Amino acid sequence: MTFEDAETRIAEWTSGPLDLSGLKLTTLPDSVAKLGGLTELNLRWNRLTAVPASILELKNLTDLVLSSNQLTMLSAGIAKLVNLKRLEVGFNQISTLPDSINQLHNLTSLYLNSNRLESLPTDLSGLTKLTRLQLDRNRFNQLPDSITQLLGLTHLFLGDNVLTDLPDHIASLTNLVGLYLQNNQLTALPDAIALLEKLTHLFLSGNYLHTLPANVTRLIILDFGDNQLQSFPSNVLASTNLKSLGLSDNQLTTVPDGIVDLANLTSLNLSDNQLTTVPDGIVDLATLTSLALRGNKLTELPDSISQLGHLKYLDLSDNQLTEIPGCITELSKLLSLRVACNLLTIVPPSIAKLTNLTDLNLGNNRLGWLPHEMSTISGLTMLGAPERNESGYLDLHGNELPDALMQAGRSSVSELWDYLRTNTPP
Fold this sequence. Notes:
Elements (H helix, E strand, L loop, with lengths): L2 H10 L5 E2 L20 E3 L20 E3 L20 E3 L20 E3 L20 E3 L20 E3 L20 E3 L20 E3 L17 E3 L20 E3 L20 E3 L20 E3 L20 E3 L20 E3 L20 E3 L20 E2 L9 E3 L7 H9 L1 H10 L4
Parallel strand pairs: 1-2, 2-3, 3-4, 4-5, 5-6, 6-7, 7-8, 8-9, 9-10, 10-11, 11-12, 12-13, 13-14, 14-15, 15-16, 16-18, 17-18
């Protein structure tokens, strides 16, 4: 794929988006300037070090993607693109922005993530239509004052910077729905954050926070993982609409009182704490579909978990379980069960009740055999560890299973089942 490929695509363009991504371009054919009707141009994954001047002649552009190039700056001429609605320049080496960016009055989405920005232009008041601003993975150590001029913002991404605090005037962003502050150096949040009445999505993982300000009560999603929480902020309990709660990697020794009162919760992550028990009251979370308890010190589960009839994802990896609790086998809608890195020596035949499973991780236990009844779980079609979130995998690595059994499984899971049916435990 070369410069010539780009020339060909430009020559053949008649309408719709123009995709010139991944062509290893260091410059752009001048002929692109003749495409006066072009509205969408994708130049992602090239080797451009500056915005080609020819692009700035495309006055009808509404979408311009320049992410994953080698840009060190945006030219002041970007302001010529007066109809631009979406500008993506993430994953470059940009350290400053031109003041003229304030003239892009139709801009609704601006992606500046994964650059080298430490500051923003002092006047952004002209970006009255901007709703989405991505500044994550830059070098901000404080919130630029000009951000608070963006009164139409609904989603502000500031994760993976070096912020140590937030100013009270963040409360001026009254339309903010999502605030993403993960992986910074925050030790506290201003009380003024409670004035953001439309805020429903708050991501705070990877900071040094101990609690939340009072009256933050309208949240739907709260990720408070990897902080220094030792007790649960009682004001969160007033968030009656809360559906997803992340409290992983804190210092919790018990499941905080009141969590079981969050009646609309569908996802609860308590992984990587120091829990030794799960309360019976968890049954009150009747709408729960995902429960993560990985990396604790659990030796058993309450029988009441069997009543979580909507549960689809259950992660119990890296605990101290010596058996798969019988209550789990009653969770008929379960799609994913992970019990790796425990102390399991047997798998109960009743696991065959989990006929909807498409992900079962039994790796790194002490299993010497498997019940042939598992063959009824038709969704397990491959042996091994899944890549990303692929389904259909049965993970058995790191156990004490016979070599012949594992060899059969490498051919196909159906042959593993056949082996179990026709052989007896050693």
